[in-house]
Amino acid sequence: MNKSNRSKATRKTVFAAGGILFFAFLAAVYTFGSPLPALQNALQNIVSEKSLTCPDCNLIVISLTNTRKDHIGLYGYERDTTPNIDEFFKSSLVFENAFSPASWTLPDAASFFTSLFPFSHGVMYRTQKAAVSNAILTLPEILRENGYATAAFTGGGDYNARYGLAQGFDTYIDESSYADFGILFSPPHFARRDAYLPMEELIPLAIDWLKDNKEKKKFLFLQGFDTHCPFTPRAPFDKKFGDAYLQSTADFSNCLWTFTPTDPIYENGERYWPLTSWYASKGKKDVNITDDDAARMVDLYDGEIAQADENLAALFAAIRKLGLEKNSIIIFTAEHGDLFGEHGRFMRGGPLRGTFYDQVLNIPFLVKHPNIKKIVRTDALAQTVDFLPTLLEMLGLADADAELRQGKSVLPALREKNAEEVNEYVYAGSLYKAVNNEFFSGESVVEMVRNKEWKLIKEIIYAEKSGEKISETYELYNVANDPKEIQNLYAEGNDIAQSLLKKLAEWEEKVKR
Length: 513
Hints:
This protein is an alpha/beta fold. About 25% of the residues lie in helices and about 20% in strands.
C-alpha cells in the first residue's frame, strides 16, 4: 500500500475513557521526595479516574534544543533558570529517564517525527540527499489526516524544510520561509546565531497562529536554538548567575568546542582547557580557557536558558488566555543536552559527533495533560522514538504505519498495575560522516545501550578516504552507582559488557538498513 493510500486509511480511534482507575497508575509514578509506600493515599486525587487518553485534544510541543535536563528547576537545578517553565508544568508528568537516539539535532528531530532510529531513517549528516522519506507517515501527517491544523515555527538550521521535516505541516517556518511572513530579522538576535531564528521572533507568530485557529483542533510545534552556543544572552541575563564574568576574558561570541577528549594542561602555574574556537564569520582558532572561563561559560548558558524561559512566558500566557490548558496535551523537551568539561569535552564536538553521555542524551520530557492535577514523576525508561506512539495513544488516534515504528507507547508502564517496563533497555546510535567540515574528516559510528543500572558506549572511527578502521573504543558505566559516568569499567571478557554488547548487536540487526 503506498503512502497516499495508507494516509487515507489512517483513522481516528476513540479509546474508552473510563474503566482505568488511577490506582493502577500509581505503580509506576511517584512524587518528588515521597517514599513509594506513602503514595497510595497521597496521590489518589492527582489524576481523575479517566485514562490518560484525551481524544480531540490539541497537541503543543515546545523543544528548546540544547537544554540540559539537569539545568531545569523541575529536575532539581538549584539556580532559578526556568521559573516560567516550572510554574506552567507544575501539574505535569515528568519523565526522569527519557533518552535521545543521537547527540545532535538533525537525527534526533527525524526520529521524533518518524519513530525510527537514525540508522533506519538515514538522516544522519548534512547533505542534499539527507531527508526523511516520503514513504512513511510522520506525526504531523497523521494529525493532519485526522482533522488537525498543523504548524511548525522552528529556528531553521537542522530544522530546515529540505531535510523532510516539514511533511504534514500546513505552515512551516524556518530561516528560508521566515521572510514570507513579511518580517525582517531584527539584529543582533538573528546575527548572533548565524542562520538560527530566535524564539523571541517565533513566539509572536505562534501565538497569532493559535488565535487564528482557535476553533480548530491543532498541532503546534515550536522549536528554538536559543540555548545553543555561542552563549551571548542579553542583559540582565548575561550577569544573572555568578560573578565569573569578573575574572573571565574569553570571547563567548564564539562556539568553544573540544573535538577530541582532553585533560586540562598546566602552564606557568595556571590551569587551562585547550579548545577550538569557532564562529562562522571568524573561522576557527585554537584557544586556551581557564577554570574561570569555564565557569563563566556555564553562567552564560544558564543565562540563555533563563532568557528563553522569559520569552516562553508570553506563549504560556496565551495558552491560558485561550483556554487551551483544558483541552491540550502540552510537551516541553529538548533534542539533546551539552557538555561543560565533563569527560574532558566541551559542547558535543567530538570525536565526530560522539559524546553519548547522559548529560547529552538524557533529555527533559514534560507532559502537561488535562487530567494530571499535580506533578507526577516516572522513572520508566523512554526514548525519543517512543514519543510518536505514546502521543497518538494519548490522542486516541490509530497509526497506519504502526508496524514500521521502532518505538512503543510507554502508557502501559504508567497506568497498569504492577506493569513491567515497556523498555528493558534504551538505545542510541548514529553514523556521522564529515561533509565539508573544516574541523575534522572521516566517519564514525557511535552506539549506546543502557538500562537503569548499566550503560555501554561503543565508538568506531574510520579514515575518510580508505575507510580503514582507525580506532574502536568501549566505555562501561554502572550508572546506578556512578551517574556522572566517571569510572570506565570496561574490560574484555567482562560478563556485563558482553551481555550489553549482545543486546546492542540484536538492536543493530533490527535498525540498520
